[in-house]
Here is the input.
Amino acid sequence: MICTTTTDLQKVPEGDLIELRVDLLPEVDFEMISTFRKKVKKPLILTYRGASQETIEKLAKLKPDYIDVDIEGQRPLPESYPEIQWIVSYHNFKEMPEDLDTVLKKLKTFPAALYKIAAKAESTLDTLKMLLWLKKQQNVVALPMGPHGTFGRILAPFLGSKFTFAYHKEPSAPGQLSYDQMKAYYTFKNPSFYGLIGDPVDQSISDITHNRVMKDADLNAVYVKMTVHPRELEKFLDGVKQLDFQGLSATMPLKETLIPLVDELSEEAKAIGAINTLTFKGGKIFADNTDGIGALSNRDLNGKHVIVLGAGGAAKAIIHTALKKGAHVTVLNRTPEKGQELSDQFNIPFFPLAQATKVLQKGYDVLINCTPNPCPIDPDDLLPKKTVIETKTKPKETDLLKAAREKNCPVHFGFEMFVGQAVLQFQTWFPDSKAPFEKLLNRSVLETQF
Here is the structure.
């Protein structure tokens, strides 16, 4: 269930439950709160973090469904008002407690219907810690706060939390999503878990697009974004295994770091030396790479000269696929060490990006941008009518593609690669599904993003 938090006494927001933050109102007007209470048709939580026990008494007389009090503030009154479900809360805005059991034990010194623990997640590992703890509890609301806790707020109700929180007009706590954002995750009651890992992931559109596809294809699954640093990977993978995740997409900078941590690599992933797809099955982690095939599956490159800008995981996959299709590939990269590494791995020419003008003017058939830079070369160096492919999903038309259009070049948007690689991931994760993943993904991307 989603509880929508508000401080607006004039309008009742959407939500399975409604929380009125009494302590955040400009003034505590009990008559106005009473009027608001009568307008609310869903269960109502009155939350008060102030120091006045008299205020708690007056709120209780309004007979809300719940009253939420902080353990450091006033005391619940279940004996005087047994019809109210009392919530006793703990908040830590600095860190995740080392021992959540000790916190809960302290909360339980006060009789209540529910106990809420809200604590700052300083990393994705902190959020996993809280979720793993939550699985063993009853009558608890668990809220990891901050940007690293957002995915935990989404998953918590599936793991035993009585509800989660969303905001009405603006967040009342770090990491909160709006009600409209949150409800997109709750199509299914007991879904399988999937997600995206990398750093950064905040600009990725995959949580929006993939949850839409999962709903349209009736896949009983939910997809979340998680910020993971390379140094956290081993503990992270152990945690998501315990939470029974079924699959993950991986993006920079994890595509190569993951390799020694998986149980089995596909032939494609071995040849590329990078991973973008993880599947969990039977306690093992299977890894694949769908980037290259997703980007180039429908392109005839036999005998063509392809220039790749960049030397990251996506570039590796695209170079591998282009070579398999019979292309002649040259790589340009800002960092000489990474570029030379690809040159040695695939036995292809490498030039520093600073020499792009000289290299491009010699001629090419296809130019592929695998860098995060919206235009890593001088637009004047683009050759007329030569194909330009972007791998960056947003914006739809990067500066490079705009410049290419001006020279009458055929262009391919980054979302096309995004869809192509995602189709293969969905087919890997849901092999029995007959859903038209390409059609659904294209529709999802175009309708929600552009």
